[in-house]
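PROTEIN FOLDING TASK:
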Amino acid sequence: MSFHEQVQTLRKSRGLSQEKLAEIIGISRQAVAKWEVGQSYPDIAKLIALSDFFNVSIDKLVNDYEENCHLCIEPSKVSSINEEVIDFLCRAKKSTYSGNGLESKSSRPSSHDFEYIEGEFKYIDTYLGGEQFSGEEALWKNDTPLWSMNYVGRILDEAFSVKFLKEVLNLVSRDYPYRGPIIYEKGQYKYHCIINGEFDWFQGYEEIYFNNSKVYECFFHGGSIKL
């Protein structure tokens, strides 16, 4: 079932008019109407609002993934200039938090820090908190900042698994060098991630479900740094 069919079916199952759904989500009735005929698709914030309201995962909302997800998720475009940087970023991520790397010296009170250096490149990931957290990943070349990504997230249920999250994040790839893959499932856990933008300027959202209940979510955004 395509996205526009999903929205219409879910709306009608709740006995809602297009006007009422629009009021709940905080948009115009015309926007809902366009979604339901396939003329437009929601941005990340509205997609999350729909997911939460109907209590369905984002990947279910944008089912028929091969056909529809590219309309909600802009393909990652890796320029030749960024290839070396992105390859390093992926190696750095797999060597630090997701790869169970050792923490480096705390840079701020109660912060968790990870550092990876390879030749002229340096990567630092630093975050605060645990059950609710925020942090930043950044890259330098010869001590000149190149790129950064900020993130903020929270654990929603005790069924959350750090081990599963790290397994997902360790699958970071050149095509999606931000967090994890678009979709990943293992046992009762399911992860999905949506991205808008490109490596130079992007925003995204990831979530984990356990037995169809959301147990974790994280927002992130970032891009290249120009001095």
